[in-house]
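pinging the channel bc i need a second pair of eyes. not urgent but kinda urgent?? the chain im working w is below, pasted from the shared doc
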Amino acid sequence: MPASTSVFVLASRSGRRCLTFAAFIAIAVVLPIGGLLIEAFHGSAGLWAHLFSTILPSALLDTIVLLVGVGCVTSFIGTTTAWLVTAYEFPGRRMLEWMLLLPLAVPTYIIAYAYLDILHPIGSVQGALRWVLGYDSPRQFRLPDIRSMTGCILLLGFVLYPYVYIPTRAMFLTQSANLIDAARTLGISRSRVFWRVALPLARPAVAVGIALALMETLNDVGAAEFLGVRTITVSIYTTWITRSDLPGAAQIALALLTIVVGLVALERWARRKQRYATDSRRSRSLSPRPVSRRIGVALLLLGLAPVLLGFGAPAFYLAVEAWKRFQFAGISSRIVSEAVATTAIASIATLITIAFGLVVAYATRIAPGARSSSLLRLSTMGYAAPGTVIAIGVLIVLGGFDRFIDQLTREWLGFGSGLLFIGSGAALVYALTVRFLAISAGGIEAGLSRIPVALDHASRTLGQSVAGTFRHLHLPLSRASIAAAALLVFVDCVKELPATLLLRPLNLETFATHLYGEAARGTYEEASIAALAIVAISTLPVILLSRVARVEQQHA
């Protein structure tokens, strides 16, 4: 057999094996959604009518209002700040470029936790305002209650706007300055260039960013519950935890999943006709326009406002409260055990997620085609579903496996196995893997796509197997993308609250669940160290994003 023929035979055999493994992974991802659908139709005949008449109307209305409000706030802040650091040159602009990413390091439930204490009626902020205005007590003057729909919209908007800022700024950077010059020659003023040229061209990026921000809004449980907004996600959690009604929770989760699918379809429909092209040989990138020092200072302060509100104020508050707690009682053994549990669960989930992501991404590399692309899409669909939906689905599927194994051990061995998967934490790791496999597979697939296929052919012609090619060629060249994906997955596992609340084993606390419990009880100072640890860990991918953006801008 000729060498070239043996290479293709080897590749096809390895491709089939890799596709088989990828298919099993895709089934594991889809299984919780299937379990959710089955359980939703197992409820009593009148359960759907009860949900539609009592719970869903108010929860759906609050959810829609919250989504519309967060979408407006994130789109306004994200697009204006992206244009500000792209179109104008002023002192501190380069620093502001990466500082605008910092709110990504503050999970939504932590900013709600922080501002509930910062803006408390008898807190230092409102106390200082009353002193300045000459009032003596909260009865005479107090700010509007942060526990409201408006407060929830504003706080989530100041945390989630980077999802719009990042793709919109990238789109502004790639826009040709020739288009701006042509608009100026046609009589459009500088102030109207943004509205007439730059923003219409950036609408696809804005739409993608808003869709991501709304997905995170739907995933939120802690912030909405702390601030008194009863969204569909909160209703799922309370229906299962408070009422122990799994079929009802599954039915509400199914309604939430319908909203998610609708959001994705709406985002794609909104940018279905958005097409444009530029000639890279003749175009030049957009250069920021210098402004006077007075205007530059004003622009810098304007850009710093969302950073201070979305990151600076809550981070400073957490640092102060954590220091007070440390001086009073030191580092408790409870915090140490929570750190161990958080790190262990996140590390195990990250290793499994990266391994599965490698399989799925490598299948598209060595066996390109419709089948591998379909498996990749199925494997990454978990990221579109909120953590509460995934957790309910995993609970249904693994709960069934636990009952089946318990029955077998009772019949064959004479004793029951109990909650083997759910009680051991395997269910939580499974849910985290399903939820964040898209980050792993997408990042690794992007890294592999940068490696020329000609190197694969050369390696196999020289006698390397597919496994050897992966070990000696693909793995070293894609090490950076794998490490970046692992970092992002690890941080997301640490921050994840809904799935951890629903699936953690008894008597196991992580940083996120500790914070949730203390905030629910109103003892904010007790959870400050855990909250600060989450923010510190979450800052790592922000640093990575800022470095990547700086390198790409230098090569642009």
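so Residues 1-39+356-504 form a domain with the MetI-like fold fold (CATH 1.10.3720.10). and The beta strands are 88-89, 289-290. — does that match what u expected or am i reading it wrong
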